[in-house]
Amino acid sequence: MKFKDRLKELRIENNCTAAKLASYLNYGGTAISNYESGRNEPSIDILIKIAEYFNVSVDYLVGKTNNKNYEFNIDKEFNKIFSELNNKDKCMIIDIIKFMKYKKYL
């Protein structure tokens, strides 16, 4: 789904008028209709504000995912990065983790 469609869907779902969203973003009256028609696209800062307003992730807002709230899988991400390291770097990371885990006992 494209941003323009997702934005309109979110507005309707949340009973939010284009004027109300425009006011929240400190925009004039036509800005939201320009987004929803595809004539304009928002800056990254505005995307973030819209996502926060509707309590969804930016990925959801731009159609990258259908999950409204982005769930970062730290274990998956760590394992992916860790598996790409050489053994020397892996040992260094393990030492750092051990230090961080046990420093509270020092």
The rounded Rg comes to 21 Å
List SSEs in N-to-C order: HHHHHHH
* Distance, first to last CA: 52 Å
Please tell me the CATH architecture of the largest domain by its name: Orthogonal Bundle
Mean pLDDT score: 89
Q: So, the CATH homologous superfamily of the largest domain?
A: lambda repressor-like DNA-binding domains
Percentage of β-strand residues: under 5%
Contiguous low-pLDDT stretches (5 residues minimum) are none
Q: Which bin fits the share of residues in helices?
A: 55-70%
The level-1 CATH class of the largest domain:
Mainly Alpha
Describe the secondary structure blueprint for this structure.
Elements: H1 3-13, H2 18-24, H3 31-37, H4 44-54, H5 58-61, H6 74-83, H7 87-102
Tell me what you see in this structure.
This protein has 106 residues and is an all-alpha fold. It has two domains: 59 residues, lambda repressor-like DNA-binding domains (434 Repressor (Amino-terminal Domain), Orthogonal Bundle), CATH 1.10.260; 32 residues, no CATH class. Helix content is 62%, strand content 0%. The longest helix has 16 residues. The N and C termini lie far apart (52 Å).
Keywords:
62% helix; 106 residues; 434 Repressor (Amino-terminal Domain)
